[in-house]
Design goal:
CATH architecture of chain B: 3-Layer(aba) Sandwich
Strand content of chain A: 15-25%
Structural class of chain A: alpha/beta
Number of helices of chain B: 3
Order of helices and strands of chain B: HEEEEHHEEEEE
CATH superfamily of chain B: CheC-like
Radius of gyration of chain B: 15 Å
Shape of chain A: globular
Number of domains of chain B: 1
Strand order of the largest sheet of chain A: 2-1-3-4-5
Radius of gyration of chain A: 13 Å
Structural class of chain B: alpha+beta
Number of strands of chain A: 5
Number of helices of chain A: 5
CATH class of chain B: Alpha Beta
Strand content of chain B: 35-45%
CATH topology of chain B: Chemotaxis protein chec
Helix content of chain A: 40-55%
Distance between the termini of chain A: 9 Å
Number of strands of chain B: 9
Distance between the termini of chain B: 15 Å
Largest interface: A-B, 19 and 25 residues
Order of helices and strands of chain A: EHEHEHEHEH
Oligomer: heterodimer
Chain lengths: 118, 157
């Protein structure tokens, strides 16, 4: 499994990667991008099985990223963010996200949302 | 108790509970609350601090401050990286992410308050003191973890 983690915080990218390993999902390869624009560039050159994206990022935020990538890519996208309000989650799903995980999260929470998408 | 006092008490309780969740769930660290006090000023001392502005109908400020060694330990715990491998940028990202998660958890617990959060601000440096000018009381929550203490400041108007 190849995973793309899109987050402007290098620390959060490491946290998510560690969470995936702890959840037993163990990606063969983890690609990283620091914002939505970079995420789209990575996807133009690589096929991935799962995308995990933050919400608030500079240059291109998570919502715009999902909206843009859905024009050509149908890979499952899960938003990982502190924005846990129902309206925000509904907005993300409307844009094409397949799931949402609120920080702080446990490996079980990752499994619960990501497992059915793989 | 006035509405404002009730709201502030809810904010403090929500933050306290979120500290346990974030440190326990993400860093797998044991945390105890050692003091819940109040200060007339919003003064935060480093060396590592993360701040977030609360906007919306009930504005305010939240800050977390801890030693560099503690933030290094927490970031190592939540990322699985070796403490000595963490760069200065990792520590800045880490303290920003900690205050981000604390405020996110607090916001969820008081969802009816309609709080909006700013992006986090991270500070790393010795002998720095950050002041937010306010005439309202500041809640100061002190915790202990790994033999060191850290504080969370919150001023909700």
């Amino acid at each position: 499994m190849r995973v793309l983690i899109v987050d402007d915080s290098a620390v959060m990218r490491k946290i998510v990667a560690k969470g995936l390993r702890q959840a037993g999902l163990k990606p063969d390869e983890t690609l990283e991008a620091s914002d939505g624009s970079e995420g789209l560039r990575v996807l133009a050159e690589n096929n991935v099985d799962l995308i995990l994206a933050d919400w608030n990022m500079p240059n291109m935020d998570g919502l715009t990223f999902v909206q843009e990538l859905r024009k050509s890519v149908q890979t499952p996208v899960v938003m990982i963010t502190t924005e846990g309000g129902e309206n925000k989650v509904a907005q993300a799903m409307e844009m094409g996200a397949n799931g949402h995980i609120k920080k702080p999260f446990t490996p079980d929470m990752l499994n619960e949302v990501i497992g059915p998408l793989l | 108790m006035t509405d404002t006092e009730t709201y502030r008490a809810r904010i403090v309780e929500s933050l306290k509970n979120t500290v346990f969740e974030v440190m326990g769930t993400m860093a797998l660290a044991e945390v105890t609350a050692t003091d819940i006090g109040e200060s007339e000023e919003f003064l935060v001392s480093g060396p590592a601090a993360g701040l977030m502005l609360l906007a919306g109908e009930r504005p305010g400020m939240v800050a977390v401050s801890m030693s560099e060694s503690l933030v290094r330990g927490v970031v190592a715990g939540i990322t699985g990286a070796a403490p000595e491998s963490l760069s200065r940028q990792d520590l800045l990202d880490g303290i920003a992410e900690i205050v981000n998660m604390l405020c996110g958890g607090m916001k969820t617990k008081v969802a009816d308050a309609g709080i909006q959060l700013s992006p986090p601000l991270a500070v790393l440096g010795n002998d720095c003191t950050l002041a937010w000018k306010t005439d309202r009381p500041t809640g100061v929550l002190t915790f202990e973890m790994s033999g060191e203490s850290f504080t969370v400041h919150v001023c909700a108007l």
